[in-house]
């Protein structure tokens, strides 16, 4: 495979994972926590980035070395575990894709004044169209890259117009007034929870990048993915901080829209529409692709018609939103499950990393194993806590 082709695939996988993470929930979480924690939210972002990298490095490396998708690895660790993991992933992906479709509808409503339902329908049709073309994977990669650059560029513009207190943000990132552990877990779950962390890893596998010889490239792509999502998070945080520091109140019904509107007026509000739409549609694409990648290996028929399964996945999400709306109770329940998917999936990967039948003579770095174990314990505790206290929807 040519180096230029490799580079395109690696970048595409990184952006697929990153734009899957940057959805409507990502925008809302970031602005809401900035309002409550102010400059100290910088510390939460810093810690979550470190954890995200630890998760991503472990999972992507094991997928690459084994040459298998996560559900196949899980079944090798314990028969039936892969099926269980796939059920969790698909349930979470489908439920939150309804929310992503809703976000796309909101974005088109802001931009063109059409109803959220019509906007959602048109956005769903566009997402389906991506998978109907002959070179669907290449189009998906390019779409994720373009939308990712658009979101980051527009958010940087709004950040500068908001004039945030950069000095205070820098100081509080390393010396916060308060430490909010739930906020840390929420951000980790929103970046590498559920299906999201597998999006890029499975994409690289589909492109044929696997084996120990590909680890340097896989490592760069996995860290780049976290970097892209984190850049978006940081600039959105600074934009929100600039607004909050001026004493302006955010609309509790739509915090991110308030940030963009307060910072740049009506132009900012339209920019929010573009960012919301781009974030939502790329998350729809990523959720559909990754969720189906968890079930396509279970039979030859599913593998043969996996593109049509992706189309059906998006169609069902769109139809549910257009005709029923976002089922809040379902979203909360499945969100709680999503909070537990990360420790389960990462725990499985760590077991697989030391199973010669799965990884052969590959030696997993001790520091990655230790980091992974710490993350599994912390996320399992907080995932159970979130289910008990009903905060599971924050992990979407």
TrEMBL record:
GO biological process: iron ion transmembrane transport
Recorded superkingdom: Bacteria
InterPro entries: NRAMP_fam
Membrane topology: Multi-pass membrane protein
Recorded GO CC terms: plasma membrane
UniProt entry keywords in alphabetical sequence: Membrane, Transmembrane, Transmembrane helix
Protein name: Divalent metal cation transporter
Transmembrane segments: 37-57, 77-98, 110-131, 143-161, 181-201, 222-248, 268-295, 307-324, 330-353, 365-388
Keyword Cell inner membrane: no
């Amino acid at each position: 495979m040519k180096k230029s082709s490799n580079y395109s695939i690696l970048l595409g996988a990184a952006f697929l994972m990153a734009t899957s993470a940057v959805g409507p929930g990502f925008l809302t979480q970031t602005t809401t926590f900035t309002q409550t924690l102010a400059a100290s939210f910088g510390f939460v972002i810093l810690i979550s980035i470190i954890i995200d990298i630890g998760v991503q490095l472990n999972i992507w490396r094991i997928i690459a070395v084994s040459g298998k998708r996560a559900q196949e690895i899980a079944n090798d660790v314990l028969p039936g575990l892969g099926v269980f993991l796939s059920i969790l992933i698909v349930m979470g992906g489908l439920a939150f894709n309804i929310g992503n479709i809703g976000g796309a509808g909101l974005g088109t409503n802001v931009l063109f004044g059409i109803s959220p339902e019509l906007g959602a329908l048109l956005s769903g049709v566009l997402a389906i169209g991506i998978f109907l073309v002959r070179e669907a994977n290449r189009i998906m990669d390019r779409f994720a890259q373009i939308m990712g650059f658009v979101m980051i560029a527009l958010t940087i513009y709004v950040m500068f117009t908001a004039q945030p207190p950069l000095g205070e943000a820098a100081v509080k990132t390393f010396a916060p007034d308060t430490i909010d552990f739930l906020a840390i877990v929420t951000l980790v779950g929103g970046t590498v929870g559920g299906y999201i962390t597998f999006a890029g890893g499975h994409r690289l596998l589909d492109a044929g990048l696997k084996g120990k010889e590909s680890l340097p490239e896989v490592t760069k792509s996995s860290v780049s993915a976290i970097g892209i999502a984190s850049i978006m998070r940081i600039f959105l945080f600074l934009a929100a901080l600039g607004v909050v520091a001026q004493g302006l109140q955010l609309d509790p019904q739509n915090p991110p829209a308030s940030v963009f509107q307060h910072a740049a007026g009506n132009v900012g509000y339209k920019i929010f529409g573009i960012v919301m739409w781009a974030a939502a549609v790329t998350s729809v694409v990523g959720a559909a692709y990754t969720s189906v990648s968890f079930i396509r290996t279970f039979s030859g028929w599913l593998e043969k018609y996996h593109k049509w399964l992706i189309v059906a996945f998006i169609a069902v999400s769109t139809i549910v939103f257009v005709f029923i709306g976002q089922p809040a109770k379902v979203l909360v329940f499945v969100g709680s499950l999503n909070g537990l998917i990360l420790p389960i999936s990462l725990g499985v990967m760590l077991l697989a990393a030391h199973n010669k039948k799965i990884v052969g003579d590959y030696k997993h770095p001790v520091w990655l194993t230790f980091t992974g174990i710490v993350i599994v314990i912390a996320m399992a505790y907080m995932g159970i806590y979130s289910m008990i206290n009903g905060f599971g929807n924050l992990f979407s």
